[in-house]
Amino acid sequence: QKNIPLFLFIFSIFISFLSNLYKLEISTLYIYFNICYYFCQEKYFYFGNDNFLIISYERINLVSAMNYGAKMKEIRMANNVLQKDIASIMGLSVFTYSHYETEDTTIPLKHLIAFCDYFKIRIDYILGLDSKYELESGYNIVDILICAKRLKEFRKANKITQDKLAKILNTNQSVIANYERGRTLIALPFLYTICSNYKISADYLLGRI
What we know:
By secondary structure, this protein is mostly helical. The protein has helices at about 5-20, 30-40, 60-65, 70-80, 85-90, 95-100, 110-120, 125, 145-155, 160-170, 175-180, 190-200, 200-205; strands at about 45, 55.
C-alpha cells in the first residue's frame, strides 16, 4: 500500500505529459491530487509556497474546513466580477482560479491575499474565522518579516516551542524556523490551523491589521 502514492505520482506524470501534448492546461499536481483522492481516498495537499508538497496519510479535510471557495465565489459575484477578470488581475489562468473556487486545488496563501486585497476584505472572513467582512481603510500590505515577527510572538506568548508547533501542524521544526526567520510565507492550511485552534486573527498574524 505504501507504494501506491509513488505509482500514482508516476501515472500522474504520464497523464500530465499527454495533457501537455494535446495542449490541455492540467498540472501534474492537480492530476495527482484527484487520482489519489478517488483511488486511495487519502488526502494529498499542495500546501503553499508554490512548490512545496506535503503528503498526509491521515484522513483529514482541511480544505473543506476552511471553506474558502464558496466565499470567494460569493464575493466575486456580489461585485459582478467574472472569473476570467479576477484571474487576470491575480496573474492566473481561468482554469487555475476556477479550481480555487471549487476547492479542487488548495489556494496558496499569496493568491488568497491578492484576492482579499483586491476586494478589500478580511482573510478571517474568507476562512470562516470571523463574520466581519470588510477591512478598515488604511489596512497594511502583507510583509513577510512582520508575519515572521508576529508568528514568533504568538508562539512565545502561548509558551509553545518550535518543535511542539511543528507537531501540531504535522510538519518539522525547520519549517517553523523558516517561517519565523521570514524566509518563506506560512502555508495557508498551517495558518488556518493556528488561527482556528488558538482563536487568533489571520489578518493580524499576517500584519494586515
